[in-house]
Write a structure and sequence with these properties.
By secondary structure, the chain is of the alpha/beta class. The chain has one domain (4-142): Nucleoside Triphosphate Pyrophosphohydrolase, CATH 3.90.79. 16% of the residues lie in helices and 45% in strands. It has 3 helices and 9 strands. Strands 1, 2, 3, 4, 5, 6, 7, 8 and 9 form a 9-stranded mixed beta sheet that branches. Strand 2 (16-21) and strand 3 form a beta hairpin. The protein is globular.
Length: 146
């Protein structure tokens, strides 16, 4: 099975990072950056703009990459390579009543670096990518469940 390619947005506004729930429903306490799998014949930034709008209702401008992360589940064969991009908001308002057409993202929140430290977040290096400069790489981080 070939690795799945995904894109994620690192959006920091007023010192706070935008997070979304990592699994559908309210039972999971795991958070991640908005984004998702890419579709063929669209650029990585085009895929990311689509995914962020679907999950949050927000419009973004995609900047440079800031992190590459690999998730895998060796026992199940799943392997996903994620490219994280620094992004900035260019339109829209975060609303509680926004509906992700795929029904995965049901919660969204802005968190400070201090708040982020108290949450379950994947990948583990997301905070460093969001609140520091430079490029990061996390090889083969194990997937965790809800």
């Amino acid at each position: 099975m070939s690795p799945r390619l995904a894109v994620r947005a690192v959006i920091v506004e007023d010192g706070r990072l935008l997070l979304v729930n990592a699994y559908a429903g309210v039972e999971s306490t795991l958070w991640c950056a908005p984004g998702g799998g890419v579709v063929a014949h669209a650029s990585l930034p085009e895929n990311l703009m689509r995914e962020v709008h679907e999950e949050t209702g927000l419009h973004i401008k995609v900047g440079p990459p800031c992190l590459v992360n690999e998730f895998h589940a060796p026992e199940g064969g799943f392997h996903q390579v994620e490219v994280f991009f620094r992004c900035r908001l260019v339109g829209g308002v975060l609303r509680d009543d926004w509906r992700d057409p795929e029904g995965v993202v049901t919660r969204r929140r802005w968190v400070s670096e201090e708040e982020l430290a108290s949450l379950r977040v994947k990948p583990a290096s997301l905070g460093a990518a969001a609140f520091r400069r430079g490029m990061g790489y996390d090889p083969l981080e194990p997937i965790v469940g809800p």
